[in-house]
Design brief:
Layout lengths: L4 E7 L17 E2 L2 E2 H9 L6 E6 L4 H7 L3 E4 L6 H12 L9 E8 L7 H14 L3 E6 L9 E4 L5 E5 L6 H4 L4 E9 H9 L15 H7 L4 E5 L2 H4 L5 H21 L3 E2 L12 E2 L4 E2 L4 E2 L4 E2 L4 E2 L4 E2 L3 E2 L4 E2 L4 E2 L4 E2 L4 E4 L2 E7 L4 E4 L2 E7 L4 E2 L4 E3 L9 E3 L4 E2 L4 E3 L2 E3 L4 E2 L4 E2 L8 E2 L11 H11 L2
Parallel strand pairs: 1-4, 1-6, 4-5, 7-11, 12-14, 13-16, 14-17, 15-18, 16-19, 17-20, 18-21, 19-22, 20-23, 21-24, 22-24, 23-25, 24-26, 25-27, 26-29, 27-30, 28-31, 29-32, 30-33, 31-34, 33-35
Antiparallel strand pairs: 2-3, 6-10, 7-10, 8-9
Helix pairs in contact: 3-6
């Protein structure tokens, strides 16, 4: 039997004044993904019938990110209750009793740690109890500025008191408002329409729908949920705390899936990082977006990897950098102080020290000596270097693109290669060594005579 349809309203109009940023608050990243995108991702498996994101003026970047969800603008801002009203107006034709949507989740775009499981629990509680309102609750060690949840003798929710309006007795309550709510769609519009602005901030508080509902003999309840998932982000310090919590989650998930993190607290993952089974990650490794690591690979300390694919059994680092477009096939070795960008290294290829490989195709079994660079940029355009299978590139070689090194060729150390090299050829492209007997002695004598 299918579940009743629900809609989600996401409040994302906050400008993030306390973050002192030109970027909309919900666009600040956590684990390399905008925080509102985390919430959208958590919603997706529940398949909302509709999602409406309430944004502020000038937040086109948010509107583009959340598509195909609808965006509506709250202007001027008159509080959370007003924002929900705007969202409900967009959903009006879908809401029960005339429409198919029976539940409305009210969420905040600055809660990137919310999980699908927690959202599902909130929906299930609304459906099981048939309450008009299910308010998320939490018990932080320091309730601070959170609104307090005032319960009746029957344990049901009587009202939510904002900290700015609370009495000393109410401030002593440690059960606080988690922000998100599940509403019965058939009552939501009427409850929000009944709100007023008789409060310390002269705003329409969403929390005031609770006493409105109670006056109409509608049931209101609380559901206690994990504090760390509900905590919103208002400052840079909050953002750093959310990043730490998200990193811990990602590390646990990676290890549970079969990867070894030798010093987990020093490894930083992106939300989309994919680590295969028996991957070993040493200390102080950073993964940017778009990374996939094959089974059995080893990433050594102090490496930075972004937009790259690493094959089965490959070894990267220490102190390696893989930039976007880097593809290391199986058993490739990329060692210390090697940088790879927009380049594919074939099976078993090795670049073990101090090299730059950019805009290149490197064949299987190639050995690239220390100090080799592909000179891919002429000041205007980027050019590619192609190195055939089993070629040997000697140390301190410059390959000036566009250039092709044939399969099995050997390029002597110290060469500057500007023309294509035939397969199986030996290429020496460097100045001839000249020895002048006793000249060093004369030079030292001349220099000494000047002192």
């Amino acid at each position: 039997m299918s579940q009743p349809a629900f809609a989600a309203i996401i409040l994302a109009a906050g400008s993030g004044t306390r973050m002192k940023s030109a970027i909309p608050k919900v666009m600040h990243p956590v684990a390399d993904r905008p925080m509102i995108a985390h919430l959208m991702h958590a919603l997706e498996p529940l398949r909302p019938a509709a999602t409406v994101v309430v944004i502020g003026p000038g937040m086109e970047t948010v509107a583009r990110l959340v598509k195909p969800a609808a965006s509506v603008i709250q202007d001027p801002p008159h509080g959370t209750g007003d924002a929900v009203r705007i969202g409900l107006d967009r959903l009006a034709s879908r809401l029960a009793p005339k429409g198919d949507v029976e539940d409305v989740l009210v969420l905040f775009g600055d809660t990137p740690l919310l999980t699908t499981r927690t959202l599902s629990m909130l929906l299930d509680e609304r459906r099981c109890t048939d309450a008009a309102i299910i308010a998320a609750a939490m018990r932080p060690k320091e309730p601070g500025a959170y609104g307090r949840l005032v319960l009746g003798r029957d344990g049901k929710l009587e009202r939510i008191v904002e900290a700015a309006d609370a009495t000393p007795e109410e401030l002593a309550i440690n059960l606080v408002n988690g922000g998100i709510m599940a509403l019965a769609a058939r009552h939501a519009g009427a409850l929000v329409t009944a709100l007023d602005r008789n409060n310390a901030k002269s705003e329409f508080y969403l929390t005031d729908i609770v006493p409105v509902a109670r006056r109409r003999d509608l049931d209101c309840r609380v559901l206690e949920l994990p504090e760390h998932e509900l905590a919103g982000i208002n400052t840079r310090a909050d953002l750093a705390a959310a990043e730490a919590l998200m990193q811990n989650r990602l590390r646990r998930d990676a290890m549970a899936a079969g990867a070894t993190l030798i010093a987990p607290e020093t490894v930083f993952l992106s939300t989309d990082t994919r680590l295969g089974r028996d991957v070993v990650i040493e200390s102080n490794v950073v993964f940017g977006p778009g990374v996939a690591i094959g089974d059995g690979a080893r990433i050594r300390s102090f490496s930075h990897i972004e937009g790259a694919t690493v094959g089965v059994g490959a070894i990267v680092g220490p102190f390696a950098r893989l930039r976007p477009g880097a593809v290391l096939e199986d058993e490739v070795h990329v060692g210390n102080f090697v940088e790879v960008k927009e380049a594919r290294l074939g099976v078993g290829a090795k670049a073990n020290h101090l090299s730059y490989i950019g805009d290149a195709s490197v064949g299987a079994g190639v050995n690239i000596g220390a100090g080799t660079i592909t000179c891919n940029y002429d000041g205007v355009n980027k050019w590619r270097t192609i190195i055939g299978e089993r070629a040997f590139i000697g140390s301190n070689t410059a390959l000036v693109a566009p250039v092709e090194i044939g399969a099995g060729a050997i390029v002597a150390a110290g060469s500057v290669v500007t023309r294509n090299v035939p397969a199986d050829a030996l290429t020496v492209a460097r100045g001839q060594q000249v020895d002048k007997p006793d000249r060093a002695t004369l030079i030292r004598a001349r220099l000494g005579s000047k002192n």
